[in-house]
Design a protein that fits this description.
Elements lengths: L2 H32 L1 H4 L3 E2 L2 E2 H36 L4
Antiparallel strand pairs: 1-2
Helix pairs in contact: 1-3
Length: 88
């Protein structure tokens, strides 16, 4: 596989990962706000679930999204770099 194909494959995987994680981010933000009334009836540790999601849950999901992005991109970048290095 030549360098152009490797780069194209790398960017395809990067765009796919970014799109998936952006959809997760959008779903988290949208669901916490859209279903707040329905979630208010449920409680976690004495607090309404909607409050918990807005105050803690969404932030934890966003942090997880960042961690997954950093971890996966490191693997993708290393794999692309290894594939483009000349072999002895």
């Amino acid at each position: 596989m030549d360098k152009t194909q490797i780069r194209a494959r790398h960017w395809e995987r990067t765009r796919r990962l970014t799109a998936i994680l952006l959809l997760a981010w959008l779903a988290t933000g949208f669901c916490a706000a859209f279903f707040a009334r329905e979630l208010a009836g449920l409680s976690v540790f004495g607090w309404p679930l909607s409050f918990y999601l807005a105050a803690q849950g969404a932030s934890l999901v966003y942090l997880t999204i960042l961690a997954v992005y950093a971890w996966r991109m490191r693997k993708l970048d290393r794999a692309a770099a290894a594939a483009t290095e000349p072999r002895a």
